[in-house]
Amino acid sequence: MMLVICADVLLRNVRLIPGVYSVAWANEVTEYMLYLITLLVALAAAPRQHIRIDILLRVIPRSSRGTANGCRTCARSPAAS
Question: Among 26, 30, 55, 67, whose Cα sits 20 to 30 Å from the Cα of 6?
Answer without folding.
Answer: 55
